Amino acid sequence: MFSLMFRVIKENIAYFPQTLRLARAELKRTYMTSDFGMFWAIMKPFMYLLMFYVAISSGFRGGKDIEGTVCPYFIWLAAGIVQWQFIADLLVGGASCYNRRKSIVRNTKFPLSTVPMIAVVSKMMVYLIMIGILILMCIFMGVMPSIYWLQLPLYIALTVIFLYLWVMITSLMSIISADILEFIKTIKTAFFWLSGILFNVKGRTNPFFTWNPISYLAEGFRNTFAYHIWIWEETSLLMHFVVMLLIMTAVAYLLFRRMEKRLPEIL
Q1: Average pLDDT of the segment spanning 15-34
Q2: Distances in whole angstroms, Cα of residue 161 to Cα of each of 6, 80, 116
Q3: In terms of CB atoms within 10 Å, which end of the chain has fewer, N or C?
Q4: Closest CA to 30 of 127, 39, 107
Q5: pLDDT (tens digit, 9 = 90+) per residue, 198-237?
Q6: Number of independent structural domains in the chain
Q7: Do 174 and 95 meet the contact criterion of CB atoms below 8 Å apart?
Q8: What tens digit of pLDDT does each residue of 158-205 get?
Q9: DSSP output for the chain
Q10: Rounded to 10 degrees, what is the CA torsion of 176, 94, 121, 11?
Q11: Residue span of the structural domain in which 126 resides
């Protein structure tokens, strides 16, 4: 198991320049038919955020800030939405990762373990731009850079690891059964509404929140920008997240070991 894991890590590091080029090419193809191109990739999550801010902050919540935060409600909401947009783009899109890249799988010697990373990196480019916009919004609204922002790269890395494993698992499972993709499409909305993206889950002990990686990653951004809490201060939640990553790693290992040699033939 460990030899395969080390090989996968080694392949992703060695082929990262090629992965980056393929991800950039894929991103360009996605928006090449539009005159404004990447503008729409950024405008979509921004309008998404603005819509919820107007509906919830000005409507249901009356503009009240979240208890325990050091920033306006808009920043608290934006931190969760930025995380969700990156995750949501890959919850469903990642499940068709291998099917959408059949030519790479069948006609090149590109390591199959790096194909899910192409999907992650292609979406990550917009993700990093949105994080930059979030930082600018913080400064514009009077939330100055803090020492807690130093943990932001760590949460980004954890998000990438989680999504890589998710894409690996769901894309391999969707090859086995097309129903997997339909099932993920069905539960995507449920994950949004039940993962604490729009409401405060801080301090709640419901297992769905404590074991939900999406909730943990969204709260991680909020700990950085809104609560000023270090990652090690919530040890229990961190351990739950690590356990989920280990389970996902084991599942990804079993699926990849079983299907790696047969994948080109199956596709």
Answers
A1: 77
A2: 14, 18, 11
A3: N
A4: 39
A5: 888 887 778 878 889 999 999 999 999 999 999 999 899 9
A6: 1
A7: yes
A8: 999 999 999 999 988 888 877 888 888 888 888 888 888 888 888 777
A9: -HHHHHHHHHHHHHTHHHHHHHHHHHHHHHHTTSSSTHHHHHHHHHHHHHHHIIIIIIIISTTPPPTT-SS-HHHHHHHHHHHHHHHHHHHHHGGGHHHHTHHHHHHS---GGGHHHHHHHHHHHHHHHHHHHHHHHHHHTT----GGGGGHHHHHHHHHHHHHHHHHHHHHHHHH-THHHHHHHHHHHHHHHHTTSSS--TT---HHHHS-HHHHHHHHHHIIIII---GGGGHHHHHHHHHHHHHHHHHHHHHHHHHTTTHHHH-
A10: -10
A11: 2-266
Q: Which residue, chain included where needed, has tokens 């400064």?
A: 139
Check: pTM over 0.90? Answer yes or no.
no
